[in-house]
Each structure stands twice: as C-alpha cells, then as structure tokens.
Design goal:
The complex is a heterodimer. Chain A is an alpha+beta fold. In chain A, 34% of the residues lie in helices and 23% in strands. The chains are: A alpha+beta, B alpha/beta.
Amino acid sequence: MSKYGSRSAFDLEWIERWARRVNEDRVLPKLSRFFNARFVLGIDDTDFLLEVRRGKIEKISEGLEPSDMGYEFALRAPSSAWGKFSQKMPPPMFNDIWAMAHPLHKQLKIEGNTLTFWQNMRAMHWMLSLMREV
Amino acid sequence: MNKHDPIVGRYVYINCQGKSYRTYYEEAGEGIPMVCLHTAGADGRQYRHQMCDPDFTANFRVIAFDLPRHGKSIPPDGWHLEEDEYKLTTAFYSEFIQEFCRALDLVKPVVMGQSMGGNICLELALRHENDYSALISLEGCDHSPGWWIDPLHHPHIHGGEAVATSVFGLMAPDSPDEYRWETFWYYAQGGPGIFKGDLYYYSVDSDYRDKVHKISGKVPIYFLTGEYDFACTPEMTMRTAEKVKNSECIIFGGGHFPTSEDPDKFKEVVSPVLKKIIQNDPERRGGNTRDWSVNGATRGSGNRSEKRPEGRRTIDL
C-alpha cells in the first residue's frame, strides 16, 4: 500500500455514506445555505444524480433517466481518479478537483452549466473534501 | 509587554511606464538584499514568516512589495477609466521590478519569486542578468498554460471565494491548516479581476519555452517546486531547469505557495540555496551565519479498486 492509503470501491451505498456525512457537517451550512442544484457525480460509466437544496443532499439516484429532465452540471472522472481524490492523503495531481480538471492533467470533466458550479464552488469544494472522511 | 513582528512597512512611489504607483513594501533584516515577489492575485504577506525568521534576516535584507492593485498598493490614478480589463504584461512586470530596485537603491539583489514571480525570474535572467546576484524561482517554469479564464472575474460569481477556492488545491494537503487557510484568505481579499489579470502574464503573455536556452548562466537560478503543484508541476520545472545554464532544481514535498503554506518546510528546503548565495556573496551578508539543514523530496501514488452495480436505485435522505 502506498503512503496515501487506499479505499474500497464506490457504489450507491458509498455515495449515500458520503451524502450523510455531508448533511451532518457542522461547518458546511455556513457555506452552502444558498446552494440549490441538481448535479451529477460521474464515476466511470455511472452517473449519480444528486439533488441539493439549501446545501443538503436530499436525494441521490444511480443512473440518469429521461424523467429526470436533466441536471445543471456534472463532475465526471474515472473511479481511479476519484479513488485517489478521496484518500485520506490524496496524491499529487489528485488532491483537488482543479488539479484533476486542469488541461495539463485531464482526469476530471466539468460539464454542463458551469456557472452554477462556479457560484457554489466553495461549498462544492467542502462537500467533496468530506469524501475523505467516508 | 506586547509582541511585535520585526517587519517594517513603508510606501514608495515607483514610476513605471509613465505612471506613478504608490507602492507598499515591507522589510526586515540586513545583509544581502532579497526582493520577494508574491504570486498572482496575492500580496507580500506571503513572506511574513521569512521576514520574522532570524535564519533569513540575519544574512538578508528581506523585502516584499505589493504590486500595483495588490495588497496595500493602490491602482494608478484613472484606473476606473481604463477601457480594457486589467492584464499584467511581461513588460510592465519586469520593468516594475527593475524600477522598484532602483527606487530602493538595491545593488545586485537576490530576487525570490513564486508562481508568476518564479516565472518572471526567467525574464530577469534573459534581459537583466547584470542587475541581480541570484534568482530563486519558486514554483516556476517556462510556460504555465490554462489559467486566464473568465469565471475568475465574472459578475455572477463571488470573486474572492471562487479565486481562493481555485488555488486552495495547489497547496499540499499536509501543509498546516492554519497556514493553508491564511493563504486562502489572502486570495479572498484580492481586488476584482486582479488574479485573472495577473494570469494573463502567467498563462498568456509569458512563454519562455523557446527562450530559456538563451539564458547565459551569468546569474545562478535556483528552481524549487513542490510535488503538489498542479499548475507548475515538478516535471515542468525540471524540464525548464534542464534548459537553463547554471541552474539547480529542487523538488520537495510541498505545494504552490511554499513561503506561506508551510514556512517550516520551506525553510528546510531553501536553506541550502541560501547557504550557497551567502557563500558566493560573503562581503554583504549580515552579522550572523546560520546552521542550515537539508530536506529530501518525497513522492508516492495511490490506487483503488472499482465496482459498478447494475440498474437504478434511489435513496431519499
């Protein structure tokens, strides 16, 4: 095992554990109370649709369906990248969504209405960092 | 008895490209003058730890100025009538450094800059090699693409929070929280459009890939880059250093803001460089000599397995 450690595979249950950790966080509400969005967390070929209202993740769905009527933005990366990102001590170039999304590295795609993403980036950043506590 | 930092701040008027700039700078120490250049969108506070550390100030007069429009250096008169957005250019940046050194009567100072301050060291080596005794390029390389983007200055996006969040991941996750979030704060305080405007220099107006081999080597250049820097990766710095004569390259276990995100680690990493500079310039050093230690680089990678279930499941929380 590397010095950065490792974790088990992602699945809906893992996403749920992360979502519950997000919802119980004591600091996030300060950053996320205006965060309302439906966004996709893409891991390999699976899209998880997350519905966020006032900073709380209210619903997570595995896969997209036409009746979802779309979403606002998506963060998609291979499980290998999310796996490194979510380690307790993430390795270089995987410790941050911008590190993974930077044109030099191209591990993460940020798609859709990126304005919503940018507007809520600080809250998003905090939420995603909680993956390291799942 | 109140505790004070040894830092003293003043304002000096710098004339550059036909305008006068009321420029804030701080300094501490005595000895070899060392002009410190902050990163894009930040200010000289990034060097506060070094200016308070006797291991720096015993041999160096450490000086950090705020570029115009940064920190406590106000924009030039009439900035509100400018017809184009703010863009830092190679010409202005390098001339301003030159004029600042002239204004303070600094003779052959050391310049230490990080990020865009590290990249401008290449310009100084190319065009003004006789004016400096050594260059320390922190997180510097010959080309840093991809950062001049509109969301960093957009009326629908909170500039301070977006800018600061954008750079947070450039820091090493094991750098102390206290200093990482202080660095975040510097960024959150930047003026509107200033970070983006600086990145015009960083990502657009400076491309030294076809120039660095022309650096003569007359002035030594020390490149130091942290392994978590995803804007200027260790590979980018090493590739640059390989082309620059009389240069050294040190890769260490840190991030893009070494002076402010982890000052203790930075001291360990830069101390051998400072020792060499002192040895090459014994007449000008301060009264004391310090015992410098060396820090090694660390590296590693992670991995994980993957699994994907079939069918759609939904959870209400």
